[in-house]
Amino acid sequence: MEYGTVVKNNQDTHSLIEGIDIGRIAPGTNEWILEGIKIKIGAGDRIGIVGPTGSGKTLLLRLLALLDPLDAGTIKWHGKGISGYEIPSYRKSVIYTHQQPALFEGTVEYNLRLPFSFRENIKTNYNPEVIKKQLESVNLSENFLNKPTRELSGGERQIVAVLRAVQLNPEIMLLDEPTASLDFDTTICVESIIKNWLNTGRGAKATCWVSHSHDQVERISKRRLFMKNGQISDIQ
Amino acid sequence: MNNLYIELTYTQVAFAALLIIINGIISLLLRLDLERRLLIASIRSIVQLLLVGLVLHWVFTLNKWYIVILLMFLMAIIAGIAAVNRTERRYPGIWFSSIVSVWSSSWIITAIALFGIVNVEPWYKPQYAIPLLGMILGNSLTGISLGLNRFSEELYTNRNRVEAFLTLGATKWEAARIPVQNAIRTGMIPIINVMMVVGIVSLPGMMTGQLLAGVQPVEAVKYQIIILFLLASGTALGTLSSILLGYRFLFNEHHQFLYWKITDRQ
Predict the structure, then answer these.
(1) Rounded Cα distance, A79 and B259, in Å
(2) Which 156-175 residues of chain A touch chain B by CB within 8 A?
(3) Euclidean distance between the first and final Cα of chain B, in Å?
(4) Nearest residue on chain A to B261, judged by CA atoms?
(5) Which of B20, B33, B104, B165 could cysteine-pair with B170, CB 3.0–4.6 Å?
(6) H-type helices in A119-183, by residue range?
(7) Which pLDDT value is given to residue A13?
(8) pTM here?
(9) Contact predicate A59/A71, CB 8 Å
(10) Which of A27, A87, A168 sits opposite B168 (nearest CB)?
(11) Which residues contact A187 (CB under 8 A, 6 or more apart)?
(12) Which candidate, A56, A66, A51, A57, places its Cα nearest to that of A31?
């Protein structure tokens, strides 16, 4: 296992995101919590990231989603740098989902429709058919859409959050332990929503999935990365 | 008109001050343990007001524009600092946001009052400029402190929601819009409430003062109406400005929410 050699597996494929020597200092300190990370995510990649708590997995996904500022390195999108004004458009294509989903007061449908009110998504419309198919695949009826979010279980909340993201048809999903606190059946539901999205629409999509479960990593990834102390390596 | 009110002697003032004994007796009987604080509060209010009386007397007598401006400047800075002192959370730039907002909003509205509405001659006549600014400052200060408090609290506790917006392609403004709206609404509500009940539940201090000074009730009411609208617009401007500046400090040009900058007061 050698640090910083993640790039080599994907040199032949077209990279969607490329992180070059990216790093982050803990705010208010001089301490690097992530340093010199090189990572490429190519079209069709299914990446699983494992590693102990506090190793920087969440931070890496957040940096890739440009949610936190970079203190070192650059991130390229389809081979080009990303300027400030392009970031909302980038985030629509590279969606990060939190471990604890943030839903808004109102019904499930309200939450699903919400992103279409953003300037970036204004040209696309909420598609009830896509949602209906996804709900059917996880044995949920259309009535689920009328449920107030405050009555949802933890698993249902995560299903809504993942559905809300994949309906925007991103190119990459950065999934931060979405099933960490869910039972096995709900975990499989979330996985199948992701799988449905990967198998529909045009273009090769990619996932980068942080998980603590080795079984899950086996199921959802083809390529595995290991993180420890803010460093990353390929698991062969 | 000026001689219609009863001039008070220091004996009369001292007699009124003795009424604090009522508070002292209640505190002793119920063991509220407030005697020391009552004594300090009484002495402070007397000393502070006498000092302010002396300063105002000096400013009124000198009647120079630069002295009035200097005093108005100091009053605005102190109000800006006081507004932040009432907030529970802090972020770098909160002092700047508060001082600049209190200062600019109160000066703009006072200027409109002096030049455009009351038409004071000369404009710096301290009898008008100082009390007008003081009242506007007091209300802006309340609006700004309530607004800033709500803004930082909402961003702090709803960090995940703000970020959820960002992750789905929202711009920083779209992500911050709800906390910004709630904060500005919170800042403006107290003055709206005052306007709702004014004259019914209570007579405002300024109007009461004018009545005591012998001004005709209808004249006092006219002044009071002007003041209320000055206060409302000053509060709105100050709150809006402080929240928008806060938004500029907490969201950067990369549409990132700098959540770690919000800290507890300590």
Answers:
(1) 30
(2) 161, 164-165, 168
(3) 52
(4) A27
(5) B165
(6) 128-137, 154-166
(7) 54
(8) 0.88
(9) no
(10) A168
(11) A179, A216
(12) A56
Q: In whole angstroms, give the CA distance from residue B111 to residue A212.
A: 63
pLDDT beyond 70 at A72: yes
Within chain B, which residues score under 50 in pLDDT? 1
* pLDDT on residue A131: 94
Structural contact between residues B251 and B176, judged by C-beta atoms closer than 8 angstroms: yes
The neighbour count for residue A127, using CB atoms within 10 Å, is: 13
User: How far is Cα B207 from Cα B219, in angstroms, rounded to an integer?
Assistant: 9
Other Cβ atoms within 10 Å of A199 Cβ, number: 8
Average pLDDT, chain A: 90
Query: What are the pLDDT digits (tens) for B109-127?
Result: 999 999 999 998 899 999 9
Q: How does DSSP classify residue B114?
A: I
Q: Is A91 on the interface with B (CB under 8 A)?
A: yes
Q: Is A24:A33 a contact under the CB 8 Å cutoff?
A: yes
- pLDDT at residue number B134: 94
| Amino acid code (one letter) for B201 | V
Residues 6+ away with beta carbon under 8 Å from A166: A95, A134, A173, A193, A194, A196, A197
> ipTM value of the model?
0.91
How far apart, in whole angstroms, are the C-alpha atoms of residue B231 and residue B24? 36
pLDDT on residue B3: 59
In angstroms, the CA A13 to CA A7 distance is: 11
In chain A, domain spans: 46-66+92-234
What pLDDT band is residue A200 in, cutting at 50, 70 and 90? confident
For residues A67 and B167, the answer to whether their CB atoms sit within 8 Å is yes
What token pair was written down for A72?
């070192």
pLDDT digits (tens, 9 = 90+) for A126-182: 999 999 999 999 999 999 999 999 999 999 999 999 999 999 999 999 999 999 989
- Spatial separation of the C-alpha atoms in residues A46 and B139, rounded to whole Å: 58
What's residue B24's pLDDT? 94
Out of B164, B174, B256, whose CB is closest to A102?
A: B164
Architecture of domain A46-66+92-234: 3-Layer(aba) Sandwich (3.40)
